[in-house]
Amino acid sequence: MTSPHAMLATTSMIAAIVVTATAGDILTASAMRQVGDLDAIRQRSGIPGAAWAVVTNGRFGLGIICLALSFFSLLFAFSHRDLSLIGPAATSLTFVTNAVAAKLFLRENVDRRRWMAAVFVCVGVALLAF
Amino acid sequence: MTFRRYVVLGVITLTASCGDTFLSRGMKAMGPVSLGDPGALIHAIFSPWVAAGIVLLIGFFASYLTALSWADLTYVLPASSLGYVIMTLLAKFWLGEHVSTMRWLGVVFITAGVGFVTRGPSYTDHSGPAEAAAIEAGTPEAGAAERAAEEVRR
Fold this sequence. Notes:
The complex is a heterodimer. Chain A is mainly α.
């Protein structure tokens, strides 16, 4: 039987991955909203201009740091728990937390259709663990 | 959404799933790597499968950022999750892995989720009176509102 301490440790590891991944996704998406349509920028300034517009955005830098933290949290969790538990749990939960965070911080219109999509993909990814 | 933008979503899906599968194939060919031997990881980067996987994942990130510049995060993430389906098909038919009934059920759920989100609008229109004024003034903040207005026109 799993001890409460082990369960708390597993939950903390998954939470660390989900929180940093969500923060990274939200910051990156927010950065791309600030930057604007990359296709239009590329037409005006070429690929170097579009790349420069992205990498000089502060939110993009913060987003990359959060995504890197998420990646290392994932590696840390993999070294302690099974891939089949951590991978689907973290990925599927991130779909739901991203939907909540996008509604709160990006003011995206997360209607019933998008909630259904997030929940279906979340359940589907969780089922891939079996 | 234009045809070109659906192509970008398709590129995200394909590059993510093929990139991960290439990495998996390359690392399996190398055998277990110990964290105490970081040199082995550097060596892995230059193996053909891993190198090809990294190139595909760079392509994934570039197309993912492009999609986020004209579509909502809550649209792009589910719409590009068909990659899990492709990854399962590649695992079954290329890597020869066993795929259980529950996994196939997972594939059905993901496909249904993708179907839900791609039938709706891709971008939230945030253009209020302030942003309309920004367009009039030609300020940099006008970009987002202009894009949203363009999306509505489509």
